[in-house]
Amino acid sequence: MKYGKYLVLFTLVVANLIDEPAPQVTIDQGVLTGKLSRNGMFFEYIGIPYASTNSSVRFKAPGPPPKWEGVYKAVDEIYFCPQHTILGVVGLEDCLKVNVYVPTMAKPPFAVMVYVHGGTFILGGGGKLVYGPDFLIEKDVIVVTFNYRIGALGFLCLGIKEAPGNAGLKDQIAALRWVKNNIAAFGGDPDNVTIFGESAGATSVSLLLASEMSKGLYNRAIVQSGPSLSNWVINKNPVKIAHLLAKTLGYNGDNRYDLYKFFSKLSLSELVGANIRKHSIKYLDTQLIHLPCVEETIEGEEAVLPDLPYNLFANKTSSVPVIYGTTSKEGLFLISEYCDESIEERNQRYWSASDLHFETKDEMAIESRKVQEFHFGNEEMNEKNILTLSEMYTHLYFEMPTLFEANLLIKNANASVYNYYFDYSGGRNFMKMWSGYGSESGASHGDDLFYIFKSHFAPQACLPRDQRMIDTLTTLWTNFAKFGNPTPDPKQFGVEWIPSTKNKMNFLYINDVLKMGPMPNPEPYKLWKTLYDKYRKRWI
């Protein structure tokens, strides 16, 4: 009879009808347990509170992580912080949760990889819906993902003690502090932590690289398609944006504290669902409104960004090793929703980025004409040459600021910087397919993600060629996390990934065959470097 019970239990576990518990772990907050993954490859401890927040302090830095009595069951995933989606507003305000995935088939201590999710600072979360850890776990590392506040909850910036700005970035730092303090209990090495991210997640990693507030919390960084020197990243007029946002909700407050009181009393659906459209005379200005800001000095408040990222990088004298890279067709993602009306309206603007400063409109018009002629010749942008616009977005938003940022770290901080160019087109290039350009060569913005993570919403079957790319990318990334060198044994891939130097930018071209090469697209680099060297705005 006794053996019959065990047989039934075993059968249920195998059939995934019940969860098999993971070993108990004792951390600063108390004792917790998780569960074994369905494939048996890892223990998952999900939904652990790493900090605290609520509606009374919704725009401030997070509070300390809560403690508990008894055993906390870390088995329920909190997919999102509050955000507006096609299904309406989803997510809970008490959303600061971390997920820890620990290999079952290897011995600790493990290198730790902490992923920061993207989503233009208004969407996304750290759950397995997109960021399943399976592919990385196979390489015997601990994977950590987490949620942080986004939208107005994370990035309302009023420059007052009640809403100083960058709460979402402060959540990220709180998550890293939690990892530093607790990851050893899971078998992780707190002195071997790599932070990585893609898109706005990469921008977050880049901002953490620039900031002194996160110093000592990680040992390496990977920035995938999201340098913080890109012209869209910083909210340059945060109080003005807050006024415009309040006005759309029917409020005309006179001062910052009145604005704070108004926003603090809104329901989640009102606050998260509100949006505005900014007027701009510059074609290449962003319509995103919830973005990181340069913080004002406030007594008793830590500032993540006391200055513009460029200035912080320019004054940086030390850095951890970094991998920087982009995909070959980033801009396909950005042109997917263009229509005749938006093309015509935008053709009336200057071809200028929002972080360039000109003394006069005539000067702006002259430089704008140079940009337009370089990319489009004598034509205006239209449906026939929209792929050329995609190329310009690729260069301006991703490739060039990545090169500018990498150069600053190499020259000023003597950093070890590895550059890559992801050009692979396969069956898991889901973002390119979603954008409607699946027949184009190369990789769109976000395509590389699906060769690193086993997303639950994506088809799980892999062609042999795609499986090889999964193995290639995850090996390079985890080698870097473990050893600080993505190719410690050059024989493994038949190539040695050589870091860039002050005198030469070296790139690993990632495709079916890996190869080293020079900087891609040198002519656009010359164009934009000349413009930024002369006109970059270095003040708010």
List the helices and strands and how they pair.
Elements: H1 2-14, E1 25-27, E2 30-33, E3 35-36, E4 42-49, E5 71-73, E6 83-85, E7 88-90, E8 97-103, E9 110-116, H2 134-137, E10 142-146, H3 151-155, H4 167-182, E11 188-198, H5 200-210, E12 220-224, H6 238-248, H7 256-264, H8 268-273, E13 282-284, H9 309-314, E14 322-327, H10 340-346, E15 350-353, H11 361-376, H12 386-413, E16 417-422, H13 430-435, H14 464-483, E17 507-510, E18 515-517, H15 522-535
Parallel strand pairs: 2-5, 9-10, 9-11, 11-12, 12-14, 13-15, 14-16, 16-17
Antiparallel strand pairs: 1-2, 3-4, 4-8, 6-7, 8-10, 17-18
Helix pairs in contact: 6-7, 12-15
Structure description:
- With 540 residues, the chain is α/β, with parallel strands linked by helices.
- The protein contains 15 helices and 18 strands.
- An eleven-stranded mixed β-sheet has the order 3-4-8-10-9-11-12-14-16-17-18, sandwiched between helices.
- The longest helix has 28 residues, at 386-413.
- The radius of gyration is 23 Å and the shape is globular.
- The N and C termini lie far apart (75 Å).
- Mean pLDDT is 92; it is low at 1-16.
What are its keywords?
540 residues, alpha/beta, eleven-stranded mixed β-sheet, 15 helices, 16% strand, globular, disordered N terminus
